[in-house]
Amino acid sequence: MTQVTKLFQYGTLGALMTGLYDGTLTIGELLEHGDIGIGTLDQIDGELIVIDGKAYQARSVDGQLEVLDVSNDMTVPYAAVVLYKPAHRFEQDKVISDGDLQAKIETYFEGKNLFKSIKMHGNFKKMHVRMIPRSQTGESFVKVAANQPEHTAENVTGTIVGIWTPELFHGIGVAGYHLHFLSDDHRFGGHVMDYVMANGQVEIGNIDQLDQRFPTTDSNYLKADFNLDQMKSDITAAE
User: Fold this and answer.
1) Contact 168/113 with Cβ under 8 angstroms?
2) What torsion do the CA atoms of 29, 204, 57, 171 make, to the nearest 10 degrees?
3) Residue 231 φ/ψ, nearest 5 degrees
4) Is 6-238 CATH 3.50.50.60?
5) pLDDT, tens digit, for every residue of 146-163?
6) Concatenated DSSP letters for 156-203?
7) Where along the chain do its domains lie?
8) Collapsing DSSP states into helix, strand and coil, what is residue 105?
């Protein structure tokens, strides 16, 4: 029997857009379902980066970027992880922009309606990231995102992980690429804005199923009214 690869997602980006930031799933529980992935932490406190089964938090405090190990008892309102199994792999030995590299990645897709996992390790001439600042449940995500700290590193070595989401599922996640970065020295990371790769290895994983879990113990989520059109517009603006 062919083994099925499941994308495990807790919460949705759409729920974050409405200001639902309470973490209701522990990192320990999350990591039972995947070893690479992305997300955010309770009260959207920075960017969650899961690489090789370990969780890291990238955040900006008083203008200074820091990367922290995340304990198993910390919680998330939103995260997406997968047990990573690369189906395609190629070496990138020439300098390439993010747009050109991502177009190259998509030539390995069988079609446009399946999720994909992405992992890239290499040397980057430029890496531009941002991280959502800690906010309280109820605050407008779009307003918070408008003031996100951004940081840029040059000539940095590290790993990009993330998910490519079909347009069909925009709202559950952000359509297209949702990528996070962590440097090898664990001193730089965040949500990827743009980059230039000098060289590296690119891996693409197939995803057969979406295991979507909901915060069933969060009364705010259970009672929330969602404006779907506004939610999708806000995701595009914020992400």
Assistant:
1) yes
2) -80
3) -60, -45
4) no
5) 889 999 999 999 999 999
6) EEEEEEEEEE-GGGBTTB-SEEEEEEEETTSS-EEEEEEEEEEEEEEE
7) 6-238
8) helix
